[in-house]
């Protein structure tokens, strides 16, 4: 029995063949369905991620994120956040790998790149939350942070809103300069602007920054539209936050995973009493979300493994449709389950050790 491996080339072939929009649409729809099932008690279980902080040209982390579908499968993503990667190593800030195991046997059934998957599912989750909480006529998107995650945030929002204008700000001039080209496939009007102008004009605001622990917020709570919806995705370490506390205290705040949000999300600044709802609850009861659209709303997105599980499902389905992926004998499956060592071919036998 082999393990299906989707490498970087396979992911590229899937997106190139099916199209960016079609892949994003499938993940958005699949997440909405999975969140609703979770609210109804049939979506499996996702404990908070574990991990440790590390020095990675600045403070970073390496985490493991498990999701369990009883009787079916276990999905585990390992993901590293290394803010110095683009400048020092020519690598993405976020690197990851996703593994799928059979729940009955524990056999490794699939292994896939997690870099593209993480970016797509994070954007898709923001689209699900924004579709529920933002005004349907929202046409101006603001972005604080113009790195890789900002691309899929904007892409996902473009699939559920008629966007007229995009304003973007980043403290890194290089990121800001290349952003219009990186999102050129969307055909949107994208302009660089000061942070204050971005937040003052936005109907929907996405914050996706590498702000250091204790250095936030990344914008001031002034001149914001009363109906502003914020997708805050950058907080992923204890002490790291992007939003002003004053905005959070007056807003309707929803989270994807409460335990994570209280430990390392924007809700560090609020506590459990400040959380209005979980995103799965709103997916199951959209009317509750729609009632909040006239006020400030926040999606505190820390990202949880159900999202990775769902995104992997989509990629595996597409790989099967397209005949992509490589089957590898990664695990040792002996004919005799009690045999520890693989049998050696005649030419592989080692000469006996001699005393010297």
UniProtKB/TrEMBL annotation:
Domain of life: Bacteria
Cited InterPro entries: NAD(P)-bd_dom_sf (IPR036291), ODC_Mu_crystall (IPR003462), ODC_N (IPR023401)
Xref: Gene3D superfamilies: NAD(P)-binding Rossmann-like Domain, ornithine cyclodeaminase, domain 1
Coiled coil: none
SUPFAM superfamilies the record matches: NAD(P)-binding Rossmann-fold domains (SSF51735)
One cellular component term from this protein's GO annotations in UniProt: cytoplasm
Name this protein carries in UniProt: Lysine cyclodeaminase
Native organism: Streptomyces azureus
